[in-house]
Fold this sequence. Notes:
The protein is mostly helical. The protein contains eight helices and no strands. α6 packs across α7.
Amino acid sequence: MSQFGRELQSVAFLIVRNHADAEEVVMDTLITAWRRAGDLRDDRALRTWLLRIATRHALSRRRRQHWTASIDLADSMPASRSNQPSADRLVVAEALSKLPPKMRAAVALHHYAGLTVPQVAGVMGVSHNTVKSNLRDGMARLREDFSAPQADAAGPGSRSGA
């Protein structure tokens, strides 16, 4: 728990978007891991194995909408090395919360947990191509969300005349 607990909870939270649900996912993950400890054949795969269990528990949990989800999500995201302003973190959190759960899981596992595409595929129990599609579509949606305010901010004076 001391080694992987925070990461498990953060990934779970990015998927379920609720702190209480994320805590339950972590507890369910630990119980499952304890019961199935004999299934782990390679101790070096412990992190990926735990992330797989947590992701499956998170995806199977009923999602509830909470008006504080985007703020809570931003708080759970690690601060970047460049000390990214919290307003930017809120924008990222809001955009992530709009993604479908499986797409959000793929983005969280790949970009937050740093898993490779094959590792994400193994964790989620899907093909490499499914992960690639989820990442491609998720990142496209995030780019749209980030570019929309910039396009609006350009204003009418920025357009070329007809």
